[in-house]
Amino acid sequence: MRTFIVLSAWLMATAFAAPFFFDNIYDYSDELAEFYSKVSEYIGDAKDVHTATRTCDPSKIALPAFASGLPSPGNQKPLYVAVGHGTQNYSCATSTAESQPVAIGAVASLYNATCIAANYPGMLDMLPNIAYKLQLPSNSWATLPYANLNLLGHHFFEGATPVFNLDTTSQRQYGIAFTTKKAQLSAPSSAIQGANGAVAWLYLTTITGTVGDYESVYRVDTAAGSPPKTCENQPSVITVPYAANYYFFGK
Predict the structure, then answer these.
(1) Signal sequence: where (predicted)?
(2) φ and ψ at 229, to 5 degrees?
(3) Contact, 247 vs 222, CB < 8 A?
(4) Where are the domains of the chain?
(5) Residues paired with residue 84 on neighbouring β-strands, in sequence order
(6) Are 175 and 163 in contact (CB under 8 A)?
(7) pLDDT in tens, the chain (251 residues)
(8) How far is CA 158 from the centre of its chain?
(9) What CA–CA distance (Å, rounded) separates 68 from 151?
(10) Least C-beta-crowded within 10 Å: which of 132, 188, 219, 242?
């Protein structure tokens, strides 16, 4: 019965919290309706104590089928899954049509969706779609409002190196992954495009400096994040909101 109680509390919390954090909520109520419908389905399933999931087992986590276009994690174990919500950042040499945006990294908060990925995978791909339409929180340490997901860490770049810092507090020391991009895959046509398209799905591997058992990171289920085609009438730095799911694999 514990699963039923937890899910019920979660649904009530998200239902009451959502209107305070969404902007123009009625413009995209379909995504929220689908999300809440899935939660309700799982609550119904959890009423049967013989079939209810009692644990959060990361070994059950699997990448989405579309990620088969990226290298496989092989024998690596799934460690965490996070919803990333932030901005993809680009620079413009000039504000003319002759100049094109150049990627200069990303900044995102990472929210722990590991147990959703393990126990309720049918809900996972909806999370970036909804997160993208949330306002970026003023407090980068806050929980993700609509699902009350705890902060797992922060994603940023050191120079050209993508970094995932999962050491958020003295009690939550989950390591740091320094990575390099090894492969990419264009986002599916079903992805939320935003103004200029969804950023690619990525396969990254860890490099020297990594703390912890991390060996690879996948960015999947991307929503928006691509820059305009040219820098015409753009500032010197362009920040484009995006969201994605990040899968961490390792030893």
Answers:
(1) 1-17
(2) -70, -30
(3) no
(4) 1-54, 57-250
(5) 110, 244
(6) no
(7) 444 344 444 444 444 343 333 344 434 446 655 665 555 455 444 433 334 445 789 999 999 999 999 999 999 999 999 999 999 999 999 999 999 999 999 999 999 999 999 999 989 999 999 899 888 777 777 788 767 789 999 999 999 999 999 998 888 899 999 999 999 999 999 999 999 999 999 999 999 999 999 999 999 999 999 999 999 999 999 999 999 999 999 99
(8) 20
(9) 28
(10) 188
Identity of the residue numbered 165: N
Q: How far apart are CA 251 and CA 70, in angstroms?
A: 20
For residue 56, what are its two tokens? 């959060």
Task: Return the amino acid letter for 41.
Answer: E
Q: Tell me the two tokens of residue 222.
A: 């991307």
Question: Rounded to the nearest 5 degrees, what angle is found at the Cα of 52, between the Cα atoms of 131 and 245?
Answer: 20
Instruction: Report DSSP letters for the chain, one per residue.
Output: -HHHHHHHHHHHHHHHHHHHHBSSGGGGHHHHHHHHHHHHHHHHHHTSTTTS--S--GGG----GGGGGS---TTPEEEEEEEEEEEEEEE-SSSSTT---EEEEEEEEEEE-HHHHHH-HHHHTHHHHHHHTBPPPSSTTS-BTTTTBPEEEEEEEETTEEEEEEE-SSS-EEEEEEEEEEEEEPPPTTS--TTT-BPPEEEEEE-TT-BSSEEEEEEEEEEEBPPPSS-TT--SEEEEEEEEEEEEEE-
Token digits of residue 217 = 């990171």
Measure CA of the first residue to CA of the last residue in the chain; give whole Å: 33
